[in-house]
Amino acid sequence: MRISSFEQKSLWTAVVVMIIYLSPLFILGQDAHIRVHDNLDSNIVWYKVLIQSGEWFGSISAVIPQVINGLQRNAMGTEFSGIVVLHAFFPAMAAYAWSQTITRVFAFLGMYLLLKDHLVPDSDATWIRVGVALTFALTPFWPSGMLSTLGQPLALWAFLNIRKGSWTWKEWFIIIALPFYSSLVLGFFFFQTAIALVWVWDTIMNKRWNLPFLGSVFLMGLVYLAIEYRLLASLVITNTPTNRNEFVSSRLNVWQCARLTVKNFIFGHHHVGTVHTWIILPLMVLTVYFCIVNQQWRKDSTSRLFIILFVLNVALSTWYAFWFHTVWQPLKEQFELLTTFNFARFHFLRPLVIYMGFAAGCVLLWRKGGSKGRLLTKLAVAGQIILLFAYNEEIMYRSANKPSFRQFYAEEQFQEIGEYIGEPKASYRVASIGLHPAIAQYNGFYTLDTYNNFYSLSYKHTFREIIAKELDKSKKLKTYFDTWGGRCYLFVAELGKKYDYSKTSKKQIRNLELNTDVFKKLGGKYIFSSVPIRNASSNRLLLRKTFNHEHSAWKVYLYEVK
């Protein structure tokens, strides 16, 4: 389809909007505000530690001494990930900014191509094609997932072209290249499963094998398996127990699962943010009513596709919620893979499904709703763009009074701490209280605590001895650590699940009970605490000095274990 001059102008307008959206990351640099959860507290540090460890291309059996006295190299993910490459060649904040740019550009391109060629070919529907593609590209995705969810429209465009036999070298290049900037477990395993089911459906209905289509599915799968060989080795091949072996996720009854289904359907999940609640969902419900009342679903393929997408959306939320039902627990205990791999993440298909449904709903209102339908469509798309700007990281996290990148990692402050200690960092171990261990790791300290996808189960059990009395004081913390343990932290019952007490906090710890003997046996010598410990001496802790810095969000109390 030839692109009209209006559509070209619309595309350039979308580019300008994305530049404005991304500009705080480049203009503010380390003073920018970005997501903390599963980002600053983990992934960004993992890339930095991995690159600096010298084990970027380490063997399957390699370890990283800086973390928990030797974290398995495999826990840091594949060396062939594009985001790791960015962090190898750029400072952490610059790498983050470029990763955001790459992901959003290809999210826009993929959704635009998918809509233009397969869902919204109407010559007068530029507003929908460009507008919905732009809204999809502005969604608050999980940063380290890269194109795991936002790349699915581009992959679907390629697969659908191959499916109907209208492919060129571009489709095959996309299928091979996407795995290098996405994750199998954070999106594409579930996407690949869905595409494979489409092939099975086609084979049954058409009674013929579409070999190029089948070949494309296998090709992407093989590329992922080659890239993610460390994951395969860690979760499938190796017999070494990890903290994931103790995961207990199926604890909900039917009523709790039903509530979670509704919650997920209406509000979504923070790992795959869709911001669909206030504009997209009402429009989709209105369109469902329109299709049913007018029996529109009987008359055209777009209506049927819209209904299918809406039902699939409900089904994905239902699957997500009921994966945590107690009925699964016996099976999860019998089959280890059901515990170590999160099959609930089929709901990671929802961003694709929701925004395709948004586009299909807009098309139906555009075609059949008259002037009011077209006005409603324009208002919905424009409103969604404005709404998504409110979810821009700089706006959202600054208004929530979260620390900036610079304030979070507090490099100058921790440099002062290192200089004050005056010993080679590799010669002692530290842990943190009221602070994410990632901060110490980012600044080169060797930590006994960490946040990682998986690590040695034996280490988890040993570390637990340090915090056993604190866990006994809090059922919530005990369940959190014992049935998950991804955060191997110095939990304190008085602090709960809060790890970011700022320097303005008045919080104090009055009854800390740590097993400092085990702490010392693991090599621990210092504890960084963001709050004062009033009974430090009863834990054989000596306050050496308090550190404050204008560019830091924290006041750090340096305790030495005697």
Present the secondary structure layout.
Layout: H1 5-28, H2 36-40, H3 43-53, E1 63-64, E2 71-72, H4 82-89, H5 92-119, H6 126-137, H7 147-150, H8 152-163, H9 169-177, H10 184-206, H11 211-227, H12 229-237, H13 254-267, H14 280-293, H15 301-322, H16 329-334, H17 336-340, H18 350-368, H19 370-390, H20 393-399, H21 405-409, H22 411-421, E3 429-433, H23 437-442, E4 450-451, H24 457-473, H25 475-482, E5 487-488, H26 516-521, E6 524-529, E7 541-548, E8 555-561
Parallel strand pairs: 3-6
Antiparallel strand pairs: 1-2, 4-5, 6-8, 7-8
Helix pairs in contact: 1-5, 1-6, 3-4, 4-5, 5-6, 5-8, 6-18, 6-19, 8-9, 8-10, 8-11, 10-11, 13-15, 14-18, 15-18, 18-19, 24-25
Count of beta strands = 8
Shape: globular
Proportion in β-strands: 5-15%
Model regions low in confidence, pLDDT < 50 over at least 5 residues: none
State the distance separating the first and last CA atoms.
74 Å
Helix content: 55-70%
| Average of per-residue pLDDT values | 94
Helix tally equals 26
* Global Rg: 25 Å
Largest sheet: 4 strands, mixed
Give the structural class: alpha+beta
Record the strand order, biggest sheet.
3-6-8-7
Describe the protein in words.
It comes from Paenibacillus sedimenti. The chain crosses the membrane at residues 12-29, 172-201, 213-232, 275-293, 305-328, 348-366. This is YkoS. Keywords: Membrane, Transmembrane, Transmembrane helix. This protein is of the alpha+beta class and 562 residues long. Helix content is 57%, strand content 6%. The strands form three sheets. A four-stranded mixed β-sheet has the order 3-6-8-7.
